[in-house]
Amino acid sequence: MKVLQDVKCGISTFHIRLTYSRVEASIRIQNFVEKIEGCKRRKVDAKNCLDTVKDKSAITGVENSVVSTTEVIPVDEKSSNGLQDNEPSETHEFPLKKVNEPCRLECLCFRTPIYFGGRYLKYSRNVSQTRWIIDEERMGEASIEEIIGGNILPMCRGDSYKFHAAGREDIDVRMLGSGRPFLFEIQNAREVPSELLVKEIESKINSLENKLVRVKNLKIVGSQGWTLMREGEAEKQKQYAALVWISRPLQDEDFQTISSLKETQILQKTPIRVLHRRSPLEREKIINWMKIEKIAGSSQYFLLHMCTQAGTYIKEFVHGDLGRTNPSIGSILGCRAEILQLDVTDVKMNCFLTE
Asked: Domain Pus10-like C-terminal spans what residues (predicted)?
């Protein structure tokens, strides 16, 4: 086509699919093929080829069509395929009779997914990362997915979106610092926002009255956004600040005990609170460093700052999870320890940072 039309051809996210069909001719071809022994046929349901297109009204009639790929054994090889000379000649009729009636043409326009990358911050302890419904009841007042996606999707006039993040935090945990990297995948976008419009989307999200979520460094990225996310996830570290209570007064030597622990290996069994949805495994994790910040006027409450390997269960590391995490803050200090609040203060990934 490129040579015949004498035009340049490049790769684009926008595609046009033309499907030509004629029922009578298709039936004749099918009947002809069925008479040939030794042929190989492969049928592909056209509907399965269009899974990425959500607007089904645009392809009415196409979903019931069948695309056939047929390998026909030449006539001079008929003896090896069991064909006899006395078989009816119409069996070998080829090419078929010319058809002068018009065929049916279906035109389908669609776009491959476009991706938005950035980092989000979460300031509420009642916002989930994704939409969370249990027994038809919403958990939390909103979700990161809906707040950001609800502002991006209308600007792109897409069919739907998918949300991907580099890890996740519990609904009652805030995401602070530089934010958590994320990708939004927009299906079949009819408009690709300009860089200026993307900045307007970011400003709109950040100016919402409830101030639950903030977005940083929002931009359109190619499929290489997946590569950046995967490379960072493998080696990423996360920093936390936890409000901790212990069953005895904090002593001076406790500061040294905690701060002296570097690159400490811990063993964590799957926490009891997630056993209903996670496999019962034992994981090795690394606590890179820790330090205690004393709270004025309190002897049993303190802030615990720490940096850990991604995937560490921080809540269980503090209270021990009935001995399923070892060591824990409780076992290190030799007392009962409980975590009251938790914040993620940084996600160490070179992904979607300020340029």
From this structure: 115-347
Number of domains within the chain = 3
d(CA 265, CA 286): 5
Q: Are residues 125 and 76 in the same domain?
A: no
pTM: 0.71
CATH code of 276's domain = 3.30.70.3190
Q: Distance from CA of residue 276 to its chain's centroid?
A: 23
Q: Are residues 99 and 51 in the same domain?
A: yes
Residue 52 phi/psi, 5° resolution?
A: -75, -10
- DSSP class per residue in 154-203: HHHT-SEEEEEESS---TT-EEEEEEEEEEEEEES-S----HHHHHHHHH
| Per-residue pLDDT of the chain in tens (355 residues, 90 and over written 9) | 677 777 776 677 788 888 888 777 777 777 777 776 555 555 544 444 444 444 444 434 444 444 444 444 444 444 444 445 555 444 555 566 677 778 888 898 888 888 999 999 999 999 999 998 888 888 888 999 999 999 999 999 989 999 999 888 999 999 999 999 999 999 989 988 999 999 999 999 999 888 899 999 999 988 778 777 777 666 688 999 999 999 999 999 999 999 999 999 999 999 999 998 888 899 999 999 999 999 998 999 999 999 999 889 999 999 999 999 999 999 999 999 999 999 999 998 887 776 5
- Residue 123 belongs to domain spanning: 114-235
Instruction: List active site positions.
Output: 170
